[in-house]
Automatic annotation (TrEMBL), chain A:
Family according to the record: Belongs to the cytochrome c oxidase subunit 2 family.
Subcellular locations according to the entry: Cell membrane; Membrane
InterPro entries membership: CcO_II, CcO_II-like_C, Copper_CuA, Cupredoxin, Cyt_c-like_dom, Cyt_c-like_dom_sf, Cyt_c_oxidase_su2, Cyt_c_oxidase_su2_TM_dom
Membrane disposition: Multi-pass membrane protein
Substrates-to-products reaction catalysed: 4 Fe(II)-[cytochrome c] + O2 + 8 H(+)(in) = 4 Fe(III)-[cytochrome c] + 2 H2O + 4 H(+)(out)
Protein name: Cytochrome c oxidase subunit 2
The protein's required cofactors: Cu cation
Organism from which the protein derives: Salipaludibacillus keqinensis
Name of the gene encoding the protein in the UniProt record: coxB
Start and end residues of each Cytochrome oxidase subunit II transmembrane region profile domain: 18-115
TrEMBL record, chain B:
Protein name: Cytochrome (Ubi)quinol oxidase subunit III
Pfam families assigned to the protein according to its UniProt record, in alphabetical order: COX3
Heme-copper oxidase subunit III family profile domain mapped to chain residues: 1-204
Alphabetized UniProt keyword annotations: Cell membrane, Membrane, Transmembrane, Transmembrane helix
Taxonomic lineage of the native organism: Bacteria, Bacillati, Bacillota, Bacilli, Bacillales
From TrEMBL, chain C:
Species whose genome carries this gene: Salipaludibacillus keqinensis
Higher taxonomy: Bacteria, Bacillati, Bacillota, Bacilli, Bacillales
Domain of life per record: Bacteria
Signal peptide residue numbers: none
Places the protein is found: Cell membrane
Entry keywords, A to Z: Cell membrane, Membrane, Transmembrane, Transmembrane helix
Region (Disordered): 1-23
Keyword Kinase in record: no
Keyword check for Chaperone: no
UniProt name for this protein: Cytochrome-c oxidase
Automatic annotation (TrEMBL), chain D:
Keyword Nucleotide-binding assigned: no
Cytochrome oxidase subunit I profile domain boundaries: 7-518
Top enzyme category: translocase
Pathway named in the protein's UniProt entry: Energy metabolism; oxidative phosphorylation
Gene Ontology MF: a single term: metal ion binding
Key words, A-Z: Cell membrane, Copper, Electron transport, Heme, Iron, Membrane, Metal-binding, Respiratory chain, Translocase, Transmembrane, Transmembrane helix, Transport
Cross-referenced SUPFAM superfamilies: Cytochrome c oxidase subunit I-like
Protein name listed in UniProt: Cytochrome c oxidase subunit 1
Compartments, record wording: Cell membrane
Bilayer-crossing regions: 26-48, 68-91, 103-126, 151-177, 189-217, 273-293, 305-330, 342-364, 376-402, 417-438, 459-482, 554-587
GO cellular component: plasma membrane
Amino acid sequence: MKYLWRLLPLSLILLMSGCGVQNLSALDPQGPVAEMQYSLIQLSLYIMIFVLVIVFAIYIFVLYRFRERPGDTHIPKQVHGNRTLETIWTTIPILLLLMLAIPNVMDTFTLADVSVNEEGEESEDGEMDHVVVEVMAHQFWWEFTYPDYDITAGQDMYIPTDTRIIIELQSSDVQHSFWVPALAGKQDNVPGIQNDMWFEAPEEGVYMGKCTELCGPSHWLMDFKVIAVDPDTFETWASNMAEPPSNVTEPEGEVAVDGRGVFEQSCISCHAVGDDGGNIGPNLTNYGEREVLAGYMDPTDENLEAWLRDTQEYKPGNEMPNFDHEAINDEEMAALIEYLNELKILEEE
Amino acid sequence: MADHQAVEQHTLPPNPEKATLEGRNKYLGFWFFLGGETVLFGSLFGTYLGLRDGVVDGPGPSDLFHLDLVFIMTMILLTSSLTSVFAVINMKRGNYKGLLMWMWATVLLGVAFLGFEIYEFYEYYHLGLGFTTSAFASSFYTLVGTHGAHVAFGVSWITVLLIRYRKSGLTLTNAPKFYTAVLYWHFIDVVWVFIFTVVYLLGIGG
Amino acid sequence: MSSHVDPSAPLQGKPSKSTERKLKNEMRTQLISFVFMIFITSMAFLSIASDAVPSGFAIPFILILASVQVILQLYFFMHMNAKGTGWVNVMIWSGLFVAALTVATLMLLIGVVKY
Amino acid sequence: MSYEKAQSKNVIWDWLTTVDHKKIGIMYLAGGAFFFALGGLEAILMRIQLMFPEFTFVQAQTFNELLTMHGTTMIFLAAMPLLFGFMNFIIPLQIGARDVAFPFLNALGFWLFLFGGILLNVSWFVGGAPDAGWTAYVPLSSESPGHGLDYYVLGLQIGGAGTLIGGINFLVTIINMRAPGMSMMRMPLFTWSSFVASMLILFAFPALTIGLLLLMLERLFGATYFAVDFGGNVIIWQHLFWIFGHPEVYILILPAFGIFSEVLATFAKKRLFGYSAMVFATLIIGFLGFMVWAHHMFTVGMGPVANAIFAVATMAIAVPTGIKIFNWLLTLWGGRIQFTTANLFALGFLPSFVMGGVTGVMLATSAANYQFHDTYFVVAHFHYVIIGGVVFGLFSGTFYWWPKMFGYRLNETLGKWFFWLFLIGFHLTFFVQHFLGLMGMPRRVASYLPGQGLDSMNFISTMGAFLMTVAFILLLVCIFVSTKNRTNVADPWDGRTLEWTTPTPVPEYNFAQTPLVRELDAYWHEKYEGDGKMKAAEPLEDIHMPNGTILPVVMSLGLVVAAFGLIYLVHPLTIVGFAITFGAMFVRSIKEDHGYHIPVEAIKRDKEEG
Ligand code: HEA
Ligand code: HEA
Ligand SMILES: [Cu+2]
């Protein structure tokens, strides 16, 4: 048991210093929702440590004091019980639990409140004070639709900083769960049902998100990113997504033009660029600015080719077919990759 | 079987079903089983109520249900409950013939009920309500069908008892068997009360 | 060798006078409760079948009638009011309690409406 | 069958046909131990896969199968049967009964469990085990390709029927079969907590039965309860599963609590502190156990009112559990604590379980649960309560009752090594998982990416699991090397309750004469306040015993055949299977079987020999 004792304070230090990778850890909150949850976690942890200290103290005292010593054969007094003691250890836990239950109930209601101010959607300085994002989960990728902007993005979810983000969660197949630990706890994407949540990101940054409901063999790879940018950038991003700049719609480089051809032949039935294309797979309008490829890989050319050639190896069970050399030869592949890499809507301004 | 002589002749106790330890165990155990069955049917009712609006393009309750048929079925089952009560009273009287006769009546009523239910399902099927048509259809057939399966099991069980013990007279062994079968039968009726109320009456009126 | 009970021997004799009397009484009670059940069942059907009864009244009404009838079945037909049925009552009511929770949950908490 | 015939039976046939609660108890233990090793093996394979980031020891699909089967096996096929083993063997002895209320059904329950478990595991060999988690959330489970989930549905259905039968059997046994003087409030706490656990079984398992039935009809016959396009709803499954699932965890822990109550009182040499409060707390836990299931569903979108209510109800369970914890501590207070292996496990339980319990209360904090849910924090929580509670209870019970059951004592030195290694391995494995969860590691992931700060803790966790494996193997060694330890096995620990008054090996009729109980801790009372012997409540007479029968095996086998018919939609096979089962039921009901009597002379002979 000594072992445990040493671990306890150690773990506390670990906890309080905010361990874990920034932007992935619930212990390093980056927005008001995660902060609210973090302070509840802290509160509950303190209460629990209080309980543990009391129990461990009695425990160690008892074990030490009343251990059998060599030669001791006395028969202890057969005690029946004690009213007072029993009242005490019924009352104190109740009080401790109330200390936790009351803030918890309040926070539960706060977190469930997704209403936005009705006055009008614009605040004084003309900026939007909330953005609605419909999050559709698919095996094994994420689709983000911004109904007010009439745009759809895949895998990377751009949001403006300091703005209330209203999330409407849905699923197109099995149940998934939407979790961005540094910004907010999770809610589930349930087929047939819509769940709402909200969060805010005061700081610009890239926040890692994960699916946390077992959804098939590639569940563990179903990551996404939340990218918080300042509201102006966000507006630019949104309008460019809606009407992509010319480099996206009409690529200039010769190779990229060929690439566009390959894309139109092999990819467009599932993936859209701009308005153009299917929606079975993620929208690729801003592929060139993706943080990651397929939700989790470095978006290098080699990885992209490997992925296209053998998607089932990298995300087993996903809907995308493999493209072998017969479907896309090496030359075409290079062109396609170049085309995809050029799909940038923010920097090419 | 018995390698010992029966010495004592038994006189009829007031509650022959509970006169032996085996009987008392059976009695209690069976009641507990019914307690579990309550939750079982509760889950089915809940599922049905949760899904009853899920008719999609298929027919819904008000397109299907006829009160007259359900009323007849209800009366049959209710009456069969009474006949089984009479059976138990006769058992306690030591009137074995009476016990058998009332139990047979119960079986007959049970069979009649099943007949109506099969007819009913047949009709719904022809009105376009297949088992897989909609969530409503699946949950309806599952709930009412599970009840029907209970009726069928009850009928077979009692029939086996009646044939097996047609000549034995009332004994300390078969009294608890008849008694538990009757409990089961009443329970089937209890479930039906909820079915006709929640499924049929609410289906039409609510 | 001591004597053993033979459980397959037919039971002999008549019930005692007091038992007879009790059974007579019981017969009458059961008949009355049966008639009453028929009555309330018919009321339930009528209240739905006739247009005269508004459904705002009919629905709670038939649910109450159903509960009454179930109580009658349990306590009269199935003798849950007899002596020595303490544990039976515990288990049946616990079962009903869990069943009621289940039904309420599956009606309300399946995500369609948020509470 | 006569007494002589009953005595001379082929050993294998004897075990196949036995209706003796002690033999059935031992078979439950053996079956449970087998599945525990299997589930442990699956855990080890998972832990190896998670040892390094992006490790490819097993494929993702295999990993999902492993985690599903690990959870399912451990809960349904290991922990519960092992507890049932002790309950079967010990309860009748503790209440002074000759057998359980329904010996036939008792055997049936065991064979249903065994065949259900085997059926479930057949899936490994015929194209893949179930892969949707032990919770089998729809529509992942209802649409999972292959037959894995069909095996899950039918295997659990068969095993679950066995459990329900067992539960009813214990309830009636405890109510009807107690020896004279053994009032409810004189029952040992193991019996009490098993009683409450059986009540939970009675009301929780039917919800699972229906859940599985629906899932089966959906998968095999195209029903549409969970198909959104047909008006179905996927949350219904989750409710049905957790209405069963949460009480299930108390079904596991309550009997373990019972074991600790016996062991701690015995080795502190003190009467259990606050006996009636303990009984009351057990009942409250059982009751509250039915009010909290939705704490597994906080993130599923029930709404804030529902979340708040279920959060508060869940927290309330900490109160009765705390009452128990403090009563145990006060039982030790003022005692003379002996550090036997059995007691070490009980003592190890106290801090370990409290750590798991308090993280449970943290999880119950609904708003914070959005962060905890479906992460390794939850995995850490439930292994702390399950291993620190249930598994420690099982090991404690093993060392405590082994002499009574098998006639020899387990080696204490090896036992203590086993304890310490297991304890350290257990904390090493699961303590770090709290942080893994909070640092962003979801549960049920086949692997994780490097550079997310999850590597070293996962490695530590796997090392702990290896340590547990070493410990477990040590236990097996301990069992085999101890067989010579045959001194004083009837009452090796200065026991307090009736099971220690029986001779060892326990005769098939348990008690030559039913004992008369005069106090709580009946045997202790007679030892320290009487003449050390139980008073008899009846004269020495012939003892009536039930006959053995093969029908339970046949009935269970029939259901397995029917299950194969259903899984592969071969309807004739299904019909044959059900025909076998119902045929056996029919035979059972028309063939009266009145058992046999053991003559007084034979009992007297036993007494002299023993
Ligand atoms: C034996 C099994 C067992 C036991 C006993 C418990 C006990 C408890 N469990 Fe646990 N639980 C599981 C097994 C168990 N659990 C499993 C298997 C899962 C995961 C299932 C899955 O998803 O696969 C789970 C998941 C789980 C969740 C869902 C997590 C999630 O998925 O998001 C929650 C949430 O509320 C929870 C809560 C609790 C609580 C409050 C208790 C309480 O009963 C604990 C009470 C005990 C104490 C609190 C300690 C002693 C008390 C004191 C010393 C008094 C003073 C204390 C205070 C004032 C706090 N459990
Ligand atoms: C009674 C319940 C129980 C028990 C005892 C255990 C015991 C263990 N469990 Fe688990 N576990 C669950 C119930 C249980 N578990 C459940 C319900 C889940 C959730 C599943 C889901 O998500 O659906 C889970 C999930 C789970 C996970 C998370 C998987 C995931 O989410 O991806 C992990 C990971 O570390 C894990 C590890 C372990 C380990 C290392 C042990 C160890 O303690 C195991 C100890 C056992 C041994 C050490 C025996 C070893 C034996 C051998 C190796 C063979 C030797 C044999 C012979 C010599 C004959 N368990
Ligand atoms: Cu729970």
